[in-house]
Amino acid sequence: MGSKENGKPSRHNGFFPSLPNRSRTPPRNPPMVPLASLLAYELKNEIVENPLLRCGLALQPRKGEDFALVKTDCQRIPGDGSSTFAVFGIFDGHNGSAAAIYTKENLLNDVMSALSPGLKRDDWLAALPRALVAGFVKTDKEFQAKEQTSGTTVTFVVIDGWTITVACVGDSRCVLDSQGVVTDLTVDHRLDDNEEERERVRAAGGEVGRLSIVGGAEIGPLRVWPGGLCLSRSIGDMDVGEFIVPVPHVKQIKLSTNGGRLIIASDGVWDALTSEKAAKCCRGLLQPEVAAKHIIKETLRTRGLRDDTTCIVVDLLPPTYVEPPPPVIKKKSTIYRMFHWKQKQPPPSQPAYDEIPVMEELFEEGSAMLSERLGPGASVNGGNGMFLCAICQCDIEANDGISVHAGAFFASKSRPLDGPFLCRSCKWKQEAMEGKQPSTRGGASK
Question: Who's near 354: CB < 8 A, 6+ residues apart?
């Protein structure tokens, strides 16, 4: 999957004034590490404390189609305070605000409904990427049933301890700034930036091109026709082809206990600032709300207010972090300064970090094919001899469910007996997204 450049790693110390610089910059794309290995590392080194979580929100509306979700008191097991996790989301609507509002209100519940109750924490985290895919598709399907034509991008972040899971469709973005290293945790689904998505849309029956004007000249960004959307993935947009899919890119990482800062923002920010510049402009600002406001201010200074502009900043602080007291500024007279001038000394050298990297990548997948995203195995048993649809979680008879892997009877890759299974309407949606069913939808703009 294509993505925007992150820029070169900065040698800046980040936003924690008490944290030292690394002696060397860690790799930007660390190798995947099994979750079980990291949990064993934690137990061995007695790293069990959760981070201190602080967040701030800032927004500058123009069209009134941006919405944000900040929820820090979610619980995997209702009533169990030890199962608390946090959720943050940016929903950038287009062609109206209905899709953004509906997604903000329903996506979390749809994701949670795809997770079996009572899972242990490590099992819950391992199942979360698949549940995010199911939740995104379910939210899209149920919103389209309302026959409203708006759509929305989504960047959805789940934080459980030091584990961060990010799912996205569209061009809002989540950026991690940790120990001076800036990493994109999302992928932009803009047709201009993503050749793989252009090929997928064409293969599914869509046309990709720029707006044509009199004389045959082409202007503006690449768009999908019919509809004219410049994104290849979103929630909603029922008046555009089914090849505009709600299947999210999902990335899951485990952050080191040195902490880090997340910047989650709509494209109003990213059209003006690179990931590196957004991270750099708010380093040294300890309060996340102040940092978010400063990013908005820098965005407006750079590009002006051309779109709704929304930013959430989330700080994951080490458990031992102690906020320094505000500096005491004493005014000195000009004569005092003249006779007591002293050359500024360089700061004392700091010890290097230990060998724990900035982050460990646990999972990343961006395929738009549900057969690749929902994983192997049967659907969860719903009781009474029934199964649950892997998307909408409705009961289906064991002999009536349609495998997500089912295709033409003689197709070499068709595995009609392998789960998970879908109800008939969800199977139709899967086939429509993959270009196997004629689209019943037909213009939107973003």
Answer: none
